[in-house]
Each structure stands twice: as structure tokens, then as C-alpha cells.
Specification:
single chain, mainly alpha, disordered N terminus
Length: 735
């Protein structure tokens, strides 16, 4: 009891101290990287932004996180983050930046939380360095600058960590319940990804809490039950509601939240396979923003290209689109090939792994001399927590069949924690010991500098030789000098140690700024000189550094990293033969192309929400003028074509097959009933649809009247190309 009271008293005394002045610039750096120029992102991730627009219109849409104002289908994630985004949009008005703002603030909050967590046990300098490492981990600001979920997820898990640490210090059961309940909240942000930290929570509580085993088991069992209850609370309500009284659960195959959680957003991420509607086989899972149509991607390659032939581009793309992580050097969407060294491969290493060698040396130092049976110091206990966070997550990303680069933000907290705690620990060992421990600091500096040279080497054409050579040379020199000057306690040695830390953070800092320098991608955020492409890999030899990792081709739902229209894949809804991006019914006019947010872009606003992140005004005018009371402005196969029209007008647009076009939502009989009720009569189709939607698409084509393109296309000469030819607007009326 005395120990507990002293802990609480110490905490209160600490809180009364003035602000750490060294922390201020670190927070300002995090704020700059997360907030600067987010106001230029007009659509952000259009799929999610459209949902916010819909959620603003009714509590029904708000509760279910409906993608469209008509409440036809939900987005593919739980609603908590989108509730927060909707509240932000309600307060500040509906803008791209207002839906991004909560994630940007969460990124800054994560930096502050990590500082608080590390400072208490490892010291103020460890907290400062950990916070700085978190702020400068490239994928952290890249994700925080978007309306994707992951930044908020990490902040929530760090908040749960703070609660857990407080539970251990105060030995209060209430804080244990709060910590695990917060993980349940995180589950309602991104489902099973939130559970990645559970090994760390269980191990730490068992090892660090000074209570009987009986109480430990009872407390953890109760806390876990609460976590599960919070986790499934929304799912139970939704799945218990009659299907005709709520939207279809997007990206599920059975209209179930739980199936979505454990299938599409769960096991399928590990296996890399996803069920194809209407088929008994499996196929590689594609990106959430890219499953719209692999057919589209391949067909679009047939457009004229000024730098390479269509056959070359098609071959390049097909090679990239092999099984997740396999069959090519960078794996699917530059996530590397599964294996123990995957995090050191191209496409992943430059997002998260800059300090990994230093972290490994830090782990060795922090656990040096630890005996399995204990006793353990506070530093060793908390080091065990961060290790139990780091290892399972690293293993998952090393073997998983399908994930995106921005998921790697889950590794940022433990890496930054070990970087901060390890820097202080290794420095202390360097100064106080003369055995093998004293070599850990120069060894960590040398190997980390070597890895950073390796990471940067594919980007020579983008960043030049000087920074690569500089990091390598300075890393070697500083490591050698520190090795020579071991145990010399003078100011010069201190400066050398500080200089080494600056060198190791220099290039991560530059990489963290690349979404600002080169432009970011809100659909598939990543960092690097080609960050605007959303592919996060080194530039192709066939293209310049601003182009996509797929030789300039863009996946459905991503923006170009190049202000030019050349070498760009055509959108699902159609394009002109000139290779310029188009909207449903759009023209080849450059003014209607989504702005790429390249540093060379001429527009002050970027529409990186998707290849269709524009609205063809002539099409919109036609649909609006000829609407005779129908609920839906028009219907289309998937969300890619629908999202910008929802954002622009706030009117219901039906994505018949959900996000990717493969959800088994509609049947021919259901569609007939909707048409007879006067709910929809216009259909924009650019392909045959996917999975269970193919019958619906076929029926629409066989029972509709084709609208002449001159009535809705901006120019009669701009053919709308889709997966199977020209995109077409149809009208159906049934009595």
C-alpha cells in the first residue's frame, strides 16, 4: 500500500512540473508532418469520404456507416472512426481536411502518448527520443495525413497501453477493465487488427502485477470478457437487425458483420485469399481500394502510351499482379515476398525499418543479464511488453498473404519505444562497461547506417548519390570513432553520440516529408519519393520517380503521382483513347482529371480519392434533369464510380456490388422490384461486373434502353472504355 501511495504521489508531483521544452519542437514536427497541406486534399479517400457525406444525412446512415445516402450498402469497416470523422465534418463543415483532421490529431497524440509511456520508466531523454522516432517513422505521418483508419487505431491502442501501465502501478482492477475495453473499441475501428497487441497485454500484466495468480487469472478473464463484449456489441446489434431494415454489410458475402470481421478483415489477410462470389474457387485478395476490377486494369493497358507499348505495360502489370508477396521482386503492391527478412525488402523497409538494426541491438542491451525466473526490474518488464507487441506483429507482416504498406504503422510504437529506451541504455553501457555491452552502441550505429544505405540505394535516380553516401560514410566514421574512444568521458564523446543519433534519423525524417514534398495518396498511403503513386516502392526504370511503381499505371481508386496523363492506367468507368483519366461519362478535358498533388501540379486542390474522383457535369445534369422521383440518381457496378457523385451531390448512388462490385447484394428479382417501385432507372456500366453481379449486369443490358452518348458525354468523341469495351448509360422502366 505504501508503495502504491508513493507511486501516485510521485505521478501527481510529476504532473505539476512545467512542460518539457525539448518536447515542444518534437510535437511541432509531428504536427507539421501530419497537418501541413491536408487542406489541399479535396476528396481524401473518396470511398470513406462518401460514407461521411452519407452519414451526415441521417442517424440511420450514421449508425450503420452507410456508404451511400440511400442506405443501400455499408463501407467495409466498423463505424467508430467514421463516427468521429462525421462529427468533425459536422463541426467544421464537410471538407477533405475535416475528415482527415481526426487522424492527423491522432498521429500527434500517439507521439505524446509514447513520450509519456517511455519517460516514466526509462527517463526523460528516452521519452524524447522515442517520441521523435515515432514522429519521424515515415509511414506514421503518411497515414495520419489521410482518412484511413490506422492512425486512430494506433492512438487507441497506445491509450489502452497507458491504462494498462497505470493498472499495474496502482494495482486497480478498474484500469485493467478500461484497458481491455479500449481494445474492444479499437476492434470496432479495424476489427482483428486491434487484437495484435493482446500478447503484450497478457504477458505484461502477468509478469508485472504483484498480486496472486488467482487474482491475475480472475482479473484477466473478466477484462477479456468485457473486451469481447465491447468488440461484438455493434456487430450483434447489426446482425440482429432484419436485413430489409438496414444496409447490406459491405464486403461480406453473407451480409454479416462477424463474417466480415473474421473473413475479409481477418483470416483472409493472413492467407491472402478471398472467396469469389458465385464461384467455388479462391483467388488472391486484392486491395480494398483496388478489387474494383482486375479486368479494368488489364484492358486499360491497351490505351495509347507515349513512352512504351501497351503490350509492355500489360506484361509489367500482370507480373506485378501475381499471388500476394510472390512471383516478383516486390510482391503484390510492393509488400515483398513472405519470409523472415521481408521487413528488410523493398517496399516495406523504407516505410518502417530504418531503425530496426538499432532496435535489435537495444533489445539485446535491455535484456542483458535477465534471468528467466526473475526478478525483473521495471525497465525489463516494460521492455518485455514492447517486445511482445513487436514480435507477433512483425511475424504477421513477414508471413501474411495480403496487406497494404500503411498497415505497418502497427510496428511504429514498439520500434520507436525501443529506439528511445535503447539509445539511453546503450549509451549508459558504452560509458560504464568495458565488456561486450560497450560495443552494442557502435555496433547498432554501424549496422543501422548500413541498412539505411541499402534502403535508399534503389532511389539513386530520385534522391541522388550524396545523401546515400553521406549516411554511409558518417555512420561508419562515427561508429569507428566511438569504438576507438570507448570509456572516454568527455564532451566530445557526448557530441559524437548525439551526432550519430542525428545521422540515423536524417533520412527517415526526409522520407517522412515526402508526402508533402512529392504529394501523398489518400487511398494507399506510403512514404518515399514516389509517395503520390500510393505504391510505395522504388521507381521503375521505365518511368520517372513521380510515377507509379507499376510503370506509371494507377490502381482503381488511386491518384497519379504525375501531373501528366501519359503512362496512366485508365479508370474503371472509362477513358478516352488519348490516355487521359475520365469519370463516368467524362471527357478527355484535362480540367476534369483528378489532380495528382504532384509538386508540379497546377491546381491548389488535389482529388486523390480515386481515378474517378471527379464528376462529369454533363452526365450529372442529364441524370438530375431526367430524374422523375427515383430514389437513386443512378446505379453502377461498384463504389469507385459512385463515390465522387455522392460527395458532390449528397444524393444516393447505388453501388450494386458494394465496394469492389463482388458483393452478392442484388438479384435480378430484387432489381426488378426496385425498378417497379420507381427507386432507380439509370445504370452506368463499364464492364460485366464480378462474381454474383454478372447475372444482374446481363439482365440490365438485355432489358434496357441505351442512352446516346451525345446526351451525357462531355464530348461525343470521347469513348468511355471499360473492362469489356465502352462504358454505357442505360435506362430501364418497368410497369
Amino acid at each position: 500500500m505504501k508503495h502504491m501511495n508513493s507511486e501516485v504521489k510521485e505521478e501527481r508531483t510529476s504532473n505539476k512540473k512545467r512542460i518539457d521544452l525539448f518536447l515542444v519542437p518534437i510535437v511541432l514536427i509531428a504536427a507539421f508532418l501530419s497537418l501541413f497541406k491536408i487542406w489541399t486534399d479535396e476528396y481524401a479517400n473518396a470511398y470513406y469520404t462518401a460514407a461521411v457525406k452519407s452519414m451526415l444525412q441521417s442517424f440511420h446512415n450514421f449508425f450503420y456507416a452507410s456508404f451511400d445516402p440511400g442506405g443501400y450498402v455499408t463501407i467495409d469497416k466498423p463505424p467508430v472512426v467514421f463516427w468521429i470523422q462525421t462529427i468533425s465534418a459536422k463541426i467544421f463543415g464537410f471538407h477533405g481536411w475535416s475528415v482527415i483532421l481526426p487522424q492527423a490529431l491522432a498521429g500527434i497524440g500517439s507521439v505524446l502518448l509514447l513520450y509519456v509511456l517511455i519517460k516514466r520508466t526509462f527517463g526523460v531523454w528516452a521519452g524524447r527520443f522515442a517520441a521523435l522516432a515515432m514522429a519521424l517513422t515515415p509511414i506514421v505521418p503518411a497515414v495520419s495525413r489521410t482518412n484511413n483508419i490506422d492512425s486512430m487505431l494506433v492512438f487507441t491502442l497506445l491509450l489502452a497501453t497507458w491504462m494498462l501501465f497505470r493498472a499495474v502501478r496502482t494495482v486497480k482492477f478498474g484500469w485493467v477493465l478500461a484497458a481491455f475495453a479500449m481494445i474492444g473499441v479499437a476492434f470496432n475501428m479495424k476489427m482483428l487488427q486491434a487484437y495484435m497487441v493482446l500478447p503484450a497485454f497478457y504477458v505484461f500484466y502477468v509478469v508485472a502485477t504483484k498480486i496472486t495468480w488467482k487474482k491475475k487469472i480472475a482479473f484477466l478473464t473478466t477484462a477479456t470478457a468485457l473486451m469481447l463484449a465491447v468488440s461484438v456489441s455493434w456487430a450483434v446489434v447489426v446482425d440482429s437487425t432484419s436485413a430489409d431494415k438496414r444496409p447490406y454489410m459491405g464486403s461480406s458475402q453473407t451480409n454479416s458483420v462477424l463474417e466480415l470481421a473474421f473473413g475479409y478483415n481477418g483470416i483472409n489477410r493472413l492467407t491472402g485469399n478471398t472467396s469469389v462470389t458465385g464461384s467455388s474457387h479462391k483467388q488472391p485478395a486484392q486491395t480494398e481500394q483496388q478489387t474494383a476490377s482486375s479486368e479494368t486494369k488489364q484492358n486499360s493497358n491497351s490505351s495509347a502510351d507515349s513512352s512504351q507499348s501497351s503490350n509492355q505495360r500489360k506484361s509489367s502489370f500482370s507480373q506485378k499482379m501475381q499471388a500476394p508477396g510472390g512471383g516478383n521482386q516486390n510482391g503484390m503492391f510492393n509488400t515483398g515476398n513472405p519470409g523472415p527478412f521481408r521487413l528488410f525488402q523493398k517496399g516495406l523497409s523504407d516505410q518502417i525499418s530504418w531503425l530496426l538494426p538499432f532496435v535489435i541491438f537495444s533489445i539485446v542491451g535491455l535484456f542483458a543479464g535477465v534471468k528467466f525466473k526473475g526478478p525483473y526490474t521495471a525497465k525489463q518488464k516494460e521492455s518485455l511488453f514492447w517486445l511482445a507487441w513487436l514480435l507477433p506483429v512483425a511475424v504477421f507482416f513477414s508471413i501474411a498473404g495480403f496487406f497494404h504498406q500503411y498497415y505497418l504503422i502497427m510496428l511504429a510504437p514498439p520500434i520507436a519505444a525501443f529506439a528511445g529506451a535503447g539509445a539511453v541504455a546503450l549509451w549508459s553501457m558504452y560509458k560504464q562497461h568495458n565488456d561486450w555491452k560497450s560495443w552494442l552502441l557502435p555496433g547498432g550505429i554501424l549496422t543501422t547506417a548500413a541498412l539505411q544505405v541499402y534502403i535508399m540505394s534503389p532511389y539513386v535516380s530520385s534522391i541522388g548519390v550524396a545523401p546515400i553516401a553521406g549516411v554511409g560514410a558518417l555512420g561508419v566514421i562515427l561508429a569507428l570513432v566511438l569504438a576507438i574512444r570507448k570509456q572516454r568521458k568527455n564532451s566530445l564523446t557526448n557530441y559524437l553520440g548525439a551526432a550519430a543519433m542525428v545521422v540515423l534519423l536524417a533520412m527517415p525524417a526526409y522520407w517522412a516529408m515526402t508526402p508533402i514534398i512529392y504529394g501523398g495518396n489518400s487511398m494507399l498511403p506510403s512514404a518515399g519519393p514516389d509517395s503520390s503513386s500510393g505504391m510505395g516502392g522504388p521507381p521503375s526504370k521505365a518511368t520517372n520517380s513521380k510515377q507509379s511503381g507499376f510503370n506509371g499505371m494507377q490502381p482503381p481508386g488511386s491518384s497519379s503521382g504525375n501531373s501528366s496523363s501519359n503512362n496512366q492506367m485508365q479508370p474503371p468507368s472509362g477513358s478516352s483513347n488519348s490516355g487521359q483519366m475520365q469519370m463516368p461519362g467524362g471527357s478527355s478535358n484535362n480540367s476534369q482529371m483528378p489532380n495528382s498533388f504532384s509538386s508540379k501540379s497546377s491546381s491548389s486542390k488535389r482529388k486523390s480519392g480515386g481515378m474517378n474522383a471527379e464528376v462529369n457535369q454533363k452526365l450529372l445534369n442529364y441524370l438530375t434533369k431526367n430524374n422523375t422521383g427515383e430514389k437513386y440518381l443512378f446505379a453502377t457496378t461498384d463504389s469507385t464510380s459512385a463515390a465522387p457523385y455522392i460527395i458532390k451531390t449528397g444524393k444516393p448512388v447505388m453501388a450494386m456490388g458494394g465496394f469492389s462490385g463482388s458483393d452478392p447484394i442484388l438479384t435480378v428479382s430484387k432489381l426488378k422490384a426496385m425498378i417497379k417501385k420507381g427507386e432507380v432507372k439509370y445504370f452506368y456500366l463499364s464492364g460485366m461486373g464480378k462474381g454474383g453481379q454478372s447475372d444482374v449486369i446481363t439482365w440490365i443490358k438485355e432489358n434496357s434502353k441505351e442512352i446516346p452518348s451525345s446526351k451525357w458525354q462531355s464530348t461525343s468523341s470521347s469513348a468511355q472504355q471499360g473492362p469489356s469495351g465502352n462504358g454505357t448509360l442505360y435506362e430501364i422502366t418497368l410497369k
